[in-house]
Amino acid sequence: MIMQRSTFTGSPVVALQGHDRFADRMRRISDALLDEGALVTANLRISGGKAPWFALRVWTGREKIVEKSLDALGVRSLVPMRKGPDLRRRGRVIEGQMMPVIHGYVLVQMMALSEYLAGLLGVEHVIDVLGGCDRPMRLSDKEVSRFNGLASKGNFDWERPVDLVVRAGEPVRITAGPFCDRRATVITPSKKGRGDVVVSFGFMGGEVPVTVPLALLKKL
Fold it and tell me: For labeling, which of 7, 86, 114, 199 is most exposed (least CB within 10 Å)?
C-alpha cells in the first residue's frame, strides 16, 4: 500500500493573525455608537430637551478614569465627589482626599436607546448599565443636579457629623443619588455618627449591596 501525505499551503486566516483584532473591532463599533449617541443627546439639550441619566457600574477605583474616557468621546458623565476620611499621623491631621460619593458608579446622560447604552459597555472598566440596556434604571436631570449640589456643599463628606445611628437589619431609605427613595436594609451597623455604611436593596429580583455615606440615609 502506498501512503499519501497531504500538504496544505496558503496564508492563515485574518482572525488568527492577532488575538486582539476582535476586541479592536468591537471597540471601534462602541466608539461609533457613542459618538452618534453623544451627538443626538447634545442636539436634544441644545433644542431645550433633557435626556435622562443612567448609572454605570464600574470597577471600584476607576470611576474618574471612566468619566475621563467618556468625556473624550463627547459623552456627558458625572462622578459626584466628597472629601474622604482624615488621616492622623503622629499627632498631625492630614486632610482626607477626594473620593466618589458612591463607589463603583458613574452617572451618564444619554438618549434612552439600547444600542447607544450598549456602546457604553465597550468603555474600559465599565461592568454594566444598572438595570440593563433594554430597561435601564433612569434618573432625572433634576435629581442628578440636586445630588451633585449636595455633594459639592460637603453634605456627604466622611468627617461630617450625622445625628444617626443604624443597626444591622434596620430598614432605611436612601435620600439622594442614583438610588434615591429606595428602601434598603442596613448590612453593617454604625454608631460613629459619620463615615460609610453598607446597605442592600431589592432590584430586578435580587439584592444589590452598596456602600453609601451615613448622611445619605434616613430611618423608616
Answer: 7
Per-residue pLDDT at 27:
62
Mean pLDDT by 10 residues, the chain (220 residues): 46 47 58 73 66 93 96 91 89 88 94 86 93 91 95 96 94 96 94 93 87 95
DSSP state of 155: T
Task: With CA atoms as reference, report the closest residue to 186 among 207, 204, 155.
Answer: 207
Chain centroid to CA 68: 13
| C-alpha span between 5 and 60 (Å, rounded) | 57
Of the candidates 40, 44, 129, 38, the residue with the CA atom closest to the CA atom of residue 76: 38
Identify the CA nearest to 126 among candidates 60, 185, 195, 175: 60
Return the residue matching grid coordinates 452617572.
Answer: 107
**CA–CA gap between residue 133 and residue 183 (Å, rounded):** 24
pLDDT score recorded for residue 154 = 96
Residues ≥6 apart with Cβ < 8 Å to 20:
none
pLDDT of residue 39: 72
